Amino acid sequence: MINIKGLVKRYGRLTAVDGLTLDIEDNEVFGLLGSNGAGKTTTIHMLATLLKPTAGTATVNGYDIVAQPSKVRESIGIVFQAPSSDDMLTGYENLHIHALLYSVPSKGRRKRIEEVLELVGLADRKNDRVKTYSGGMRRRLEIARGLLHKPKVMFLDEPTLGLDPASRETMWRYVRRLVEEEKVTIILTTHYMEEADVLCDRIGVIDKGRIVALDTPANLKALLGGDIIRIKTPTKNALEIASKFDFVHKAEMKDGFLVLAVKDAKRSLPEILQGIEAESAEFASPTLNDVFIQLTGRNIKEEPEGGFMEKFAKYD
Amino acid sequence: MIEQHLAKVYAIWLREFKVFLREKSRLVASTFTPILWLFVIGSGIGSATSISGAPGVEYQQFIFPGIVIMSIIFSSVFYGSYIIWDRKFDFLKSVMVAPVSRGTVFVGKTLGGMTNSLVQAMILLAIGAAIGIPFTPLSVMQAVAVILLLSFGLTSLGLALGSYMYSLEGFQMIVSFVVFPLFFLSGALFPLDNLPSWLYVLTAADPATYGVSALRGTMLGVGGDPALDFAILAAYTGALGLFGIYSFKRMKAV
Predict the structure, then answer these.
(1) Between 20 and 30 A from A130 (CA), which of A12, A75, A93, A94?
(2) How far apart are CA B15 and CA B11, in angstroms?
(3) Which chain B residues contact residue A102 at CB under 8 A?
C-alpha cells in the first residue's frame, strides 16, 4: 500500500529523515515508534504531500507523492498531532465542510457523515460546537473527518498524545474498530510503547530519521531473548533438566534461582514445572521500552516537547 | 468537474461565513468603530470646518464614503491576515491536505472576506441613509460594486501578507504598517485638493483613495470622475489579486 524508497528530508544542516526505506502492506496497522524529533511527523507530512522530500520518494496507494499529490490526497485520511477542527462549528458542520472538500457525492453524503459519527461514538453530540468537546472527543471527530471519503490509508499522528489514560484506552478501542469496519491501512506514530504494542501488527522503530528495527511487537521483544523465568527449586539437577527442553535457549543458576530464557513463558512454564519441582516460579516479559533502550541506548521520552502548539492548542 | 470545484469553493466560504456569524463580538466591534468615527469625528471636526470644493456638503456627509471604505479596509485586511491564526491552530493544515487546489482555497477565502465586508458596509449604508445621504438605486448598486472590488483586493493583500508571516506578532505589524496607512492616506477624512505634494503622491499610490473618490462621486456628486476611479481601482484590485494568489501558492503547508 505504501512503498518508501530512500526518503530524505533536510532542514539546512539538520537531517530529520535520513534515507528511510519501508514497505507497508494492505490493511495492516503499522506503528512508527520513536522519541521526539526522531522524524516520525516529518515522515507522515511527506507521505501526506504536505512537505516535499529533499531526496527519495514514496508511493501511496500506487501514486507518487511528488508527481501525483492530488491522487495521493484523495487516497488518504489524516489526524494531525494538534487539533485541527474548527471549534466555532459543530461536529456535523466540520464533517459537512470536509465532505464537500473531498467531493463525497451529494447522494449519500449525509448518510456517510452519520455513519462515521456513529463509528467514533459522536452521533449524539454532532450538533454541539466543537468548543464543548473533550480532547478525546475532538480527536475522534478528526478521525471521523479523515474517514469521510473512504480513504485507503489513514495516518494517525500521535493519536493519544495529551489524553488521560481512560480516554487513551477508549481511543484504542475506536482505532481497532476502525480496522475492522473500514478496511483501511493505518500508519500511526507514537512514543507510547504500550500503544504500539496494543494496536500495531508491525512496528518500525525510528531513531534519528532511520528505521533501526522493523518487526511484529512479539518478535521485537524476542530480540531481547524472549521472556525470563525464575524458579526457586529444591531439585538438585534442575539446571540439567531445564537445559534439555528445546524451547529453553539459555539456562543458568543465579542467586539460588534457576533462570531460564524462553520465547513464550506462558506456554513453556507449565511444561517446565512438570519436570522440576518448584517452591516458587515467576516470569517477566520484556517491554517494548526494553527493546527501545537496547536499540537506541536511550529511554523513550514520555513527554512531548513544550512547543507553542502544546501550550496553546492542548487537548483537554 | 466544475461542480466539484464550486462545491469546494462553497465549502471554504461556508466555513468563513458561519464563523463570521458566530463571532458576534467581532461584528459588533468592527461596526461600532466606524459609527464612532462618523458621529464623533464627523460632528466634532464638522462643527469647526467646512469642505472646500464641495459647497453644501456637511463634513459628516463628506466623510461618510471614507468611513465606509475604512470599514472595508479594516475588515478585509484583518480577515485576510487571519490566516495566521488558521495556521497556528492547524485548521489550514486540514484544508491543505485535502484534494483542493490553493487557487480554490484562495477564491473561497476572498469570497468570505467580501461577504464580511459587504454585510458591514450594508449596515453603514443604512446609517448613511439616516444621516441624509441621497441614495438612489443606481448609486447603491455602484457603491456595492466599489465595495466588492476593494474588498477583493484588500482581502487578497491580507492573505498575501498573512502567508508570509508565521507569528502572531506579524499581525500587529500589518495593523500599523498596512491598515492605518491605507486608511489615513485614502482621503477618507479630508479632501485631496490642496495637499503638499509629498502627501499627494502617497495618497495617489493608495488603492483605497480611488474607492473613497468613487464612492464620494456616486453618493454625493463631488470629486473626480467615478468611472475613472473605478477603472483605476479595478486595475489595483487585479494586481493585488495576482499578488495574493502568487503568495498563497508559494506558502508552505506546514
Answers:
(1) A75
(2) 6
(3) 98-99
pLDDT of A29 > 90? The answer is yes
Q: Which residue of A has its CA nearest to B168?
A: A308
Letter string b/e over residues A196-218, b meaning 16 or more CB atoms within 10 A of that residue's CB: bbebbebbbbbbebbbebbeebe
Q: Across the interface, do B253 and A51 touch by the CB < 8 Å criterion?
A: yes
Judge whether B115 and B16 are in contact, CB under 8 Å. Answer: yes
Q: Do B98 and A50 touch (CB under 8 A)?
A: no
Give the other-Cβ count within 10 Å of B243's Cβ.
16
Q: What is the mean pLDDT, run by run of 10 residues, along chain B of 254 residues?
A: 90 94 87 92 85 78 94 92 85 92 94 94 94 92 96 95 85 87 93 90 95 93 87 96 94 82
Measured distance CA(A300)–CA(A289) in Å, rounded: 7
Contact A98 B94 (CB under 8 A): yes
In 3-state terms, what secondary structure has residue A256?
A: coil
Q: What is the DSSP letter of A255?
A: T
- A2 three-state secondary structure: strand
User: What's the Cα-to-Cα distance from A200 to each of A215, A263, A294, A300, B128, rounded to whole Å?
Assistant: 10, 20, 20, 18, 65
Residue B40: which domain range?
2-250
Q: How far is CA B172 from the centre of its chain?
A: 18
Distance of CA B152 to CAs A116, B112, B118, B238, Å?
A: 37, 10, 11, 9
Q: What is the pTM of this model?
A: 0.84
Helix (H, G, I), strand (E, B) or coil at A58: strand
Interface residues of A toward B, Cβ cutoff 8 Å, are 45, 48-51, 70, 73-74, 76, 78, 80, 82-86, 88-89, 93, 97-98, 100-103, 142, 145, 308-309, 312-313
The answer to whether the Cβ–Cβ distance between A98 and B98 falls below 8 Å is yes
| Nearest-10 crossing angle of helices A135-147, A109-119 | 140
Q: Work out the angle at residue A143's Cα, subtended by the Cα atoms of residues A137 and A144, and round it to the nearest 5 degrees.
A: 90
For residue A147, is pLDDT > 80?
Answer: yes
**Could you give the C-alpha distances from B41 to A12, A166, B37, B54, B211, in angstroms and in order?**
53, 59, 5, 18, 20
According to DSSP, residue A276 is labeled S
ipTM > 0.85 (yes/no): yes
Indicate yes or no: CB of B15 within 8 angstroms of CB of A89. yes
Structural domains in chain B (count): 1
Instruction: Name the burial class of residue B25, with classes exposed (0-12), middle (13-18) and buried (19+) by CB atoms within 10 angstroms of its CB.
Output: exposed
DSSP string over B25-82: HHHHHHHHHHHHIIIIIHHHHHTT---TT-TT--HHHHHHHHHHHHHHHHHHHHHHHT
Question: Cβ contacts (< 8 Å) between A145 and chain B: which residues?
Answer: 94
**CA A134 to mean position of chain CA atoms:** 22
Other C-beta atoms closer than 10 Å to the C-beta of A290 total: 16
Domains and CATH numbers, chain A: 2-220+301-312 (3.40.50.300), 226-285 (3.30.70.2070)
Query: What's the gap between Cα A192 and its chain centre?
Result: 8
- Residues A187, A132, A84, A35: is their CA dihedral positive or negative? negative
